[in-house]
UniProtKB/TrEMBL annotation:
<protein>
    <submittedName>
        <fullName>NADP-dependent oxidoreductase</fullName>
    </submittedName>
</protein>
<dbReference type="InterPro" id="IPR041694">
    <property type="entry name" value="ADH_N_2"/>
</dbReference>
<dbReference type="InterPro" id="IPR013149">
    <property type="entry name" value="ADH-like_C"/>
</dbReference>
<dbReference type="InterPro" id="IPR045010">
    <property type="entry name" value="MDR_fam"/>
</dbReference>
<dbReference type="InterPro" id="IPR020843">
    <property type="entry name" value="ER"/>
</dbReference>
<dbReference type="InterPro" id="IPR036291">
    <property type="entry name" value="NAD(P)-bd_dom_sf"/>
</dbReference>
<dbReference type="GO" id="GO:0016628">
    <property type="term" value="F:oxidoreductase activity, acting on the CH-CH group of donors, NAD or NADP as acceptor"/>
</dbReference>
<keyword id="KW-0560">Oxidoreductase</keyword>
<dbReference type="Pfam" id="PF00107">
    <property type="entry name" value="ADH_zinc_N"/>
</dbReference>
<feature type="domain" description="Enoyl reductase (ER)">
    <location>
        <begin position="14"/>
        <end position="338"/>
    </location>
</feature>
<dbReference type="Pfam" id="PF16884">
    <property type="entry name" value="ADH_N_2"/>
</dbReference>
<dbReference type="InterPro" id="IPR011032">
    <property type="entry name" value="GroES-like_sf"/>
</dbReference>
């Protein structure tokens, strides 16, 4: 059985040499545990935050070196169960990813409850969808937009990293709720994807010019809600473009994850006073109670063909580190997944 272990904390870009593929015996499940053969495993921007000597205070701790990553979503099939409520053949999700086989204790909270061992309905959607639109990404988009940003009728919404896993769901949920939506991403091809497939009203490539100008062109009258996946210059531009009583849901700040030291904050924060803005961070891991509601609503949109998702699939567990490096560079469109077995 193979496991991917971090062996060095990346400096700047993630390199495959920061990881090692290790052969270990298939673990034995004890009482209350199941043995899972993982089939798909998730690749997430937020992993970068834990691949550092110290993770941000209050966040999940840094991943220890020389051990498998605990706290990465994955799906697989139960091959042996000593836990009530689970049987061989069940498809499940859990948080012991980036390895072929995992022993998981039923009911043991993982990732704040979002990654606790859970049986999946694979008649409703393929297993890997539970790593994206019907999983933690769906929860993040749904909870952040509807419960954190406090969408109101008529709000104009800007989503950054809009062609990514979380962003493409945020953009679509906002459209489904009847909003005007602006999406930004890092290439012309992604802009086309946003306009043609995600269905946003306007989109721009943030590398194509000064961000405030690009945003003003896409949203001449400003925005009411900014869903922030990027931080830095994007957050600054949003604060400039928000209308009075505008709201920011801070989901993530990917532009800063590889930085050795944190960047100074936006220099225009006084506008939060003058425009009575609300800036709220959130963690999907604290919102596991919304999983049933999210699954119902997002599931219904998917079945009705009203919400679509793309996947960037990388084949082979050994390529998980390269897949993460690719995501951080922006190679992906939609959800980044590693297919461990067919
Ligand atoms: P994505 O699928 O969105 O991939 C990340 C994307 O970020 C890349 O495709 C790239 O696209 C973009 N990007 C990378 N570097 C930069 C940069 N310097 N400036 C602008 N864009 C950049 O990843 P996820 O869906 O996993 O994560 C998206 C965000 O959501 C992250 O900030 C993550 O931390 C956050 N998150 C927060 C959660 C929470 O509970 N609050 C839970 C899950 C995720 P491009 O080509 O457009 O540059």
């Amino acid at each position: 059985s193979r496991e991917v272990w971090p062996v060095a904390y990346p400096r700047g870009e993630v390199r495959p040499a920061d990881f090692r593929l290790v052969d270990v015996p298939v673990p034995e499940p004890g009482t209350g545990e199941v043995l899972v053969r993982n089939t798909w495993t998730s690749v997430d921007a937020a992993l970068r935050l834990r691949l550092r000597e110290t993770a941000p205070p209050g966040y999940f701790p840094a991943f220890p070196l020389g051990r498998p990553l605990d706290g990465v979503m994955t799906v697989g099939e139960v091959v042996a169960s000593h836990a009530d409520g689970f049987a061989a053949g069940d498809t499940v999700w859990h948080a012991a990813g980036w390895r072929d086989y995992a022993v998981v204790a039923a009911g043991q909270p993982a990732l704040g409850g979002v990654g606790t061992l859970r049986r999946l309905d694979v008649r409703a959607a393929p297993a890997q969808a539970y790593l994206g639109a019907l999983g933690a990404n769906g929860l993040t988009a749904y909870a952040g937009l509807l419960h954190v940003a406090g969408l109101r009728d008529g709000d104009v919404v800007w989503v950054s990293a809009a062609a990514g896993a979380v962003g493409s769901l945020v953009a679509q949920i906002a459209k489904l709720r009847g909003h005007r939506v602006i999406g930004s991403a890092g290439s012309a091809a992604k802009v086309r994807y946003l306009l043609d497939e995600v269905g946003v009203d306007a989109a721009f490539d943030y590398r194509a010019g000064p961000l405030p100008d690009l945003l003003a062109e896409a949203a001449p009258d400003g925005v009411d809600v900014y869903f922030d996946n990027v931080g830095g210059d994007h957050l600054r531009a949003a604060i400039g473009a928000l209308r009075p009583h505008g709201r920011v849901a801070i989901c993530g700040m990917i532009s800063e994850y590889a930085a050795e030291r944190s960047a100074p904050g936006p220099d225009n924060l006084m506008l939060a006073v003058t425009k009575s803005l609300t800036i709220r961070g959130f963690r999907a891991s604290a919102m596991a109670h919304l999983i049933p509601e999210m699954t119902r609503e997002v599931g219904a949109w998917i079945r009705a063909g009203r919400l679509r998702y793309r996947e960037t699939v990388v084949d082979g567990l050994e390529r998980a580190p390269a897949a993460l490096a690719g995501l951080l560079r922006g190679d992906n469109t939609g959800k980044t997944l590693v297919r461990i077995t067919r």
